[in-house]
Amino acid sequence: MDNPPSSSINSFVLADSHAKFISTTYTTLSFCLITRSIPGLKWFNYYEAKHFVHAILSLPEIKFALSQATAMLFLVGTNSVRVFPATQIISQTQQVAFSIQQTYPHLSQHGKFQFL
Fold first, then answer.
1. For the chain, what is the radius of gyration of the CA atoms?
2. Structural domains for the chain
């Protein structure tokens, strides 16, 4: 992430192809938005780790971005629903949320990360 002023909002967006046309970095005086769009991204994927949210969150680039972020947004569509039951996907999103709260305590406050 760039180093915007400390008072700025540093938001990180992890998305599937719905964000493919959003710039990867957008910075103003008041905020910095970092977006990573990964086509085929799924909440739950046994077969391709490169498309699995939890695996993506363990990449060094993503870990660094999250350590600097003041807010996070997941924008992940229904790719997983085509293959897995909704109950498994809900469980996986809960695990992701718990993992973020444990690993990045600064994002554990209410409203610091959102799922769409």
1. 14
2. 9-115 (3.40.50.1110)
Determine contact, residues 51/80, Cβ cutoff 8 Å.
no
- Alpha-carbon torsion, ordered 53, 57, 60, 64, to 10 deg: 140
Average pLDDT for 25-49: 87
Q: What are phi and psi of 72, to 5 degrees?
A: -140, 145
The count of C-alpha atoms lying within 13 angstroms of the C-alpha of 96, restricted to the half-sphere facing its C-beta, is 24
Q: What is the pTM of this model?
A: 0.82
pLDDT band at 7 (very low <50, low <70, confident <90, very high): low
Separation CA 57–CA 50 (nearest Å): 10
Strand (E) positions, the chain? 9-15, 25-27, 31-37, 71-75, 113-115
Average pLDDT value over all residues in the chain: 85
Helix, strand, coil percentages, rounded to 5, for the chain: 40, 25, 40
Contact 69, 108 (CB under 8 A): no
